[in-house]
Amino acid sequence: MKHFRAWFALGCIVLSCASAHATSLYNEATFRPLTADNKAFRVGDILTVQVFENSSASTSSDTGTRRKNNVSASLTRPSGTVSTAGLGVNGDFDGGGQTQRANRVLITLSVSVREVLPNGDLRIAGEQMLNVNQEQQRVTLEGRVRPQDVSDGNVVLSTRLADARITYLGEGEVSQRQQRAWWRKLLDWAGM
Fold it and tell me: What is the pTM of this model?
C-alpha cells in the first residue's frame, strides 16, 4: 500500500506537469535591450516633433492687348454727291498682377504613435491647443516617420516626415478681423 501511494503521488505530479506549458519571457515585439535608446517604437509611445517650415511664393503677370478695327464705305452718285459712312472700333486692355506670400512656422509638439506599419514606419498624429490673449491657437500634425529618422533624444524634424499634414489655425477676434466681410466677398464675386 505504501508503494501504491508513492506511485499515485508520482503519477499526479507527472500528469500536472504534462498539462502545464511554459511561455517565454522574451517577446520580440516589445523587447528593448537595457542599452537601447528611448525612442518611440510601438503604438501609444510619445514622440516629439520639431516643426520648422519656411515657405515663400511669388508670382507676377503683365498682360497687354490692343485691337483696332476700321470699316469705311463711300458712295458716289452721277450727280456728284458723295455719301460716306464709317465705323471704327478701338479696344485697349492693360492688366497685371502680383502675388507674394511668405510663411514661417516654428513649433515643438509631442505626438503619439498611432500605428506601426509593416515596413516598420510609424504613423504619428497629435494636437496642441494654446490660448494666448483670448485667441485659441490649434496645431494638428499627422504623418509617417522612419524609425532611423528619430534622434536619440526621441525627436524628429518635420522635414523628415512623409505624408505630413500640419495645420495651424487661430480662432478669436484677431483672426476674425483679418477676414473679409461677407458683403465684400459678394461684391468681389460679382466683379465690382
Answer: 0.53
pLDDT digits (tens, 9 = 90+) for 34-69: 666 678 788 989 999 998 877 777 777 777 767 676
Show the cell assigned to 155: 525627436
**CA 112: distance to chain centroid?**
16
Contact 127, 138 (CB under 8 A): yes
52, 158 in Cβ contact below 8 A?
yes
Residue 133, CA distances (Å) to 26, 129, 130, 136, 170 in order: 52, 13, 10, 8, 12
Chain centre to alpha carbon of residue 183: 31
CA-to-CA separations, 131 to 30, 169, 189, in angstroms, rounded = 38, 12, 35
